[in-house]
Every structure is written in structure tokens, then in C-alpha cells.
């Protein structure tokens, strides 16, 4: 029995952060050995919100950093295929064909599309952003992925993929698997400023690649309970980002419970709570830093992984596109025209 395929990935907009880790990377590390795993470097998706030349010029560097982050977190390079989306033009062919299998009102109901436009400062939704879920369907179905790990932000996108796969199969025959979603059970990680989720663009993120001093500096500047002006004032734990991070990254549950009790009673200051968090985060990140150092010491490793993975993936996508065009009858139309032209040319030559 063949191993099921999994597709996952990120846009190459910079270093990954702890929000990425809890929302998707930890799940990928746990799953990637169970599946034939494809990791997309989704630079075409990046263009929906960042399409200036200077943004595009950063893609290769950001791609290397992104892959390095994922490997440092524990993904085995021998069990993962990394590939650059824009280096596989056939994905655009599928995107074009899939656009006719979904309606504009359906895409307008995808909540994250408007959220992405808002976060990018767009008053109106560009055509490419509205079609983001269709291109994502092309990404998933081009390698015939059967499972897709998702956070809550991406579930609605993948549901569009499932609808497109079913619609295509109904119209043209069984070509695509209808991918299953594997949901992450970790909630969104709030940013260090307490304002919405952690985000590179908002400057409220702790990067996976941050060194110990940087982590400590960011933690000591974190938002806490705004109503607590002194250490002897009882504080609120619920909704407090510092304790939200303790809950996720500090494995010493007894120590966290004691800090919460003292905080509620006004018997511990924010500085002590943050110092404990900084120490816990650095203990968590130390093994990741060690793996990163080994990866970066192997010159050319990450670049070669991307090149090899992209070439393998393109071969798979080419086969998928041929199968799709045959199922739809598109290859037959051109062949008929070509045969008629050939017959006419021969007839003219013998006349």
C-alpha cells in the first residue's frame, strides 16, 4: 500500500516565529514521518499582499531561512520535499482551470480573505487575494495530497479545495483525492503586545531563530495586566500574554501554578514572572538553536534541498497536469485541429 501524501508550508516573508511553531510546525514535526511530505515555499501566495520588487528580491533568502527554521524544529530532511512554488509554472495551469469550478460569492464567504486584506492595509480585495483559495487548491491537488494539516485560519481555504476536487471529479472523472484536514489543537498564540495574534508584520513576534538575549529582551517588554501598577496589587492571569506563553512553553506545571496563585494574590512582580518565562523559552529554544548551528555549518545543504525538491515536485505536477487536460478533453481539441491542418497541408502539396 502506498504512503499517503501530505502538503503543508508557508509564505517566504521572513523568519518563522513561535506562533508558527504552536500553530503548525509542531504538528508537522509530529506528522511528517507518517506521510510522504511536501513542504511548499509559497512565494506566489506572498504576491497577494507583498508584490513590490524589493519584496520579491527577498524570496530566496527568506526561503532558505524558512527551511532552516523548519529543519531546526525537527523535520527530517530525508523525509520531506521542500519546493519553491514559483519554479513550477504548471501550478498556474491548474489554477486557471480550477477558477471555473468555484464562484465569486463562494470565495467572498472565506473569512480569512478579508482578514488578510485588512492586515495588509488593503481597502479593497485584489483579484489574486480573492482567488487565494483557488491557487491553494492547485497547490494541494497538483501533488495529489490526501492530507493537509490546518490551523483555524486555513480550514476554510482547504474546504474550498475539497469542493473543487469533488466538482472536478464529478465533471471529468476521478482524478483527485478529496484531501482530509488534520486540525491543530493549539489555539492562536497572542502577540507580545497583547494585540491580536503573533505576526511578523505587527512586530509582536518572538522568532524561532532569536538568540537568548533577544528572547529575554522581548519577554521583558511584554504586555501584562494594564491595571497592575505595583507588585502587591492582585493581577489577572486570564488573557495575560505572559501566562499564555507559560502555559504553552513552560513544562514545569507546578511552578506555573504557583506563579499564577502568587500573581492573583499580589505576591509576585511582573519582572519575576517574565524572568521565569524567558528562562523557559530559552530552554525550549536551545535544542533548536543547536540543530540550526549544525544545519548552517553544512554549506549549501538548504539550497540543494530546495533545488532537488523543486525538481522532483515539478515532475509530479507535470504528470498531474497531463492527466487533468486529458480528463477534460483539452488535449483532444488541439489534436483534432492539428490533424485537420496536416491533412489540408498534404492535400495542397499533392494538388
CATH homologous superfamily (4th level) name of the largest domain: HUPs
Distance between the termini: 59 Å
How many beta strands in the DSSP annotation?
Answer: 5
Strand arrangement, major sheet: 1-2-3
Strand percentage lies at: 5-15%
Q: What's the oligomerization state?
A: single chain
Low-confidence residue ranges: none
Helix share bin? 55-70%
Secondary-structure class: mainly alpha
Tally of discrete structural domains: 2
Q: Within the CATH hierarchy, at the fold level, what is the topology of the largest domain?
A: Rossmann fold
The biggest beta sheet reads:
3 strands, parallel
Pfam families: tRNA-synt_1b
Protein name: Tryptophan--tRNA ligase
Catalytic activity: tRNA(Trp) + L-tryptophan + ATP = L-tryptophyl-tRNA(Trp) + AMP + diphosphate + H(+)
Family: Belongs to the class-I aminoacyl-tRNA synthetase family.
Element layout with pairings:
Layout: E1 5-10, H1 18-31, E2 36-41, H2 43-46, H3 53-56, H4 59-72, E3 80-84, H5 90-98, H6 104-108, H7 111-119, H8 127-130, H9 132-142, E4 147-150, H10 155-172, E5 180-183, H11 212-220, H12 241-249, H13 253-265, H14 270-297, H15 301-328, H16 330-350
Parallel strand pairs: 1-2, 2-3, 4-5
Helix pairs in contact: 4-14, 5-9, 5-15, 9-10, 11-14, 12-14
What does this structure look like?
The protein has 2 domains: 5-190 and 299-336, 3-Layer(aba) Sandwich (Rossmann fold), CATH 3.40.50; 212-294, Tyrosyl-Transfer RNA Synthetase, CATH 1.10.240. 57% of the residues lie in helices and 7% in strands. The chain has helices at residues 18-31, 43-46, 53-56, 59-72, 90-98, 104-108, 111-119, 127-130, 132-142, 155-172, 212-220, 241-249, 253-265, 270-297, 301-328, 330-350; strands at residues 5-10, 36-41, 80-84, 147-150, 180-183. A 3-stranded parallel β-sheet has the order 1-2-3. Strands 4-5 form a two-stranded parallel sheet. Helix 4 (59-72) packs across helix 14, helix 5 (90-98) packs across helix 9 and helix 5 packs across helix 15. Keywords: Aminoacyl-tRNA synthetase, ATP-binding, Ligase, Nucleotide-binding, Protein biosynthesis. One of its GO terms (cellular component) is cytosol. Belongs to the class-I aminoacyl-tRNA synthetase family. This is Tryptophan--tRNA ligase.
